[in-house]
Design brief:
Blueprint: H1 5-10, H2 31-39, H3 42-47, H4 49-62, E1 68-69, E2 85-88, E3 92-95, H5 118-131, E4 137-142, H6 144-153, H7 161-169, H8 171-195, E5 199-204, H9 212-230, E6 237-241, H10 248-252, E7 258-260, H11 267-274, E8 279-284, H12 293-307, E9 313-317, H13 327-338
Parallel strand pairs: 1-4, 4-5, 5-6, 6-7, 7-8, 8-9
Antiparallel strand pairs: 2-3
Helix pairs in contact: 4-5, 6-7, 6-8, 7-8, 8-9, 12-13
The structure holds coproporphyrinogen III.
Coproporphyrinogen III binds near residues 23, 37, 93, 205 and 320.
Length: about 350
């Protein structure tokens, strides 16, 4: 949709209709993406600027969304930090040499602003040219806890025991790892904005594995540094995490202009906790899109009712689009938001 609704909502300014985009909107739920992936591996797509740009624009051809998000993975900038990994089909990121002790940090370097994720940065320049200033482009990065959990566990894992065990028993290694990821992330987000990203989102997808005490002492100082180090970029910053609504106040105190809300809490309650000085983004359960059209419509309207027309609501899911989601339900969601 050709409008400033997304960027205006980030600033809690008036909008014509509630803006909507979807986390993971460029991925596997799109037939055009699946067709491209038959010819190229995920990493080929992500590391070829023209292909990454093409996939970024794919959802805009079929969905009337109010923003594009650059196609990459939270792991891809780690290539320029010296990390070897693959993105395994149906599994996710798998690391060649997981980080378990001090010496494993020897090969983890902090790429400078002009070296980090060169292919993604070039893709951002291409997308901005092709969008011609009409639809805003969101850049993004994984937050240090979520990145560290992949680097330590070595592959996707639900209970994060190795991660927590390293955090508790080798605090210096934890601090050094988190510090390097923090510096990399500031450089990466800076490079994205310099290349043309008009908003940025920090994904701390797995941080809900922690309780408030561990978050406050072992994670929050690094997230604080990221928001401190990106404030002067002057673009709206969205902070998203899932799994533990008890972290909302702490996560919100780190300085983002927009809080991404997961689906495990009512939007109205989340907004009350975050405070009216911030915009909120969310928060329909992505699994609702696997249900009937009636359910999609009803639940979408329910989220809108909770936002109650207050300025500063960006409609999104409470986590990423699930791969098996029917495209028609995504279209229905977007149309329901725009016609409300
Ligand atoms: O909107 C978009 O699709 C933009 C691109 C995007 C990808 N990953 C591409 C991708 C974004 C924003 C991400 C973020 C990401 N990656 C997160 C944070 C968001 C979230 O969902 O919590 C996380 C935790 C990852 C790590 C990751 N990458 C996992 C767990 C997986 C496997 C599960 C899955 O989604 O398929 C990936 C692989 C991945 N990243 C794919 C895509 C399109 C699928 C790979 C393929 O094409 O086969």
């Amino acid at each position: 949709m050709a409008s400033n609704n997304f960027l205006n909502a980030c600033k809690r300014e008036q909008v014509e209709t509630t803006p909507v985009w979807l986390m993971r909107q460029a991925g596997r739920s799109l037939p055009s993406y699946r067709a491209l992936r038959e010819r190229h591996s995920f990493m080929q797509v992500a590391t070829t600027p023209e292909l990454a740009a093409e996939v970024t624009l794919m959802p805009l051809d079929v969905l009337d969304v109010d923003a594009a998000i650059i196609f990459a993975d939270i792991m891809t900038p780690l290539t320029s930090a010296g990390v070897l990994f693959e993105i395994k089909e149906g599994v996710g990121p798998v690391i060649e040499s997981p980080i378990r002790e001090s010496k494993d940090l020897d090969h983890l370097r902090v790429p400078a602003v002009d070296e980090v994720a060169a292919a993604t940065i070039e893709a951002i320049r291409i997308v901005r040219k092709q969008l011609g200033g009409i639809t805003p482009l969101i850049g993004f990065a994984g937050a240090p806890f979520t990145l560290a959990s992949y680097l330590i566990e070595g592959k996707p894992n639900r209970d994060f025991t190795r991660t927590k065990s390293l955090m508790y028993s080798q605090p210096q290694v934890w601090a050094e790892l988190m510090q390097r990821l923090t510096e990399m992330t500031i450089n990466y987000l800076t490079a994205q904005v310099e290349a043309g990203a008009q908003a940025i989102q920090l994904f701390d997808s797995w941080v809900g594995a922690l309780g408030p005490q561990d978050y406050a002492t072992s994670v929050q100082p690094y997230v604080d540094s990221i928001f401190e180090g990106t404030r002067s970029l002057g673009v709206p910053r969205i902070h998203f995490g899932t799994g533990n609504p008890a972290l909302l106040e702490l996560m919100s105190s780190t300085g983002a202009e927009v809080m991404g809300i997961d689906f495990r809490i009512d939007l109205s309650e989340a907004w009350r906790r975050v405070g009216s000085a911030k915009a909120v983004q969310g928060n329909l359960d992505p699994a609702v899109l696997l249900g009937s059209p009636e359910l999609v419509k009803e639940r979408t309207q329910r989220v809108l009712q909770q936002a109650a027309g207050r300025p500063g609501h960006i409609f999104n899911l409470g986590h990423g689009v699930l791969p098996q989601t029917p495209l028609d339900n995504i279209k229905l969601l977007v149309d329901t938001v725009h016609s409300a």
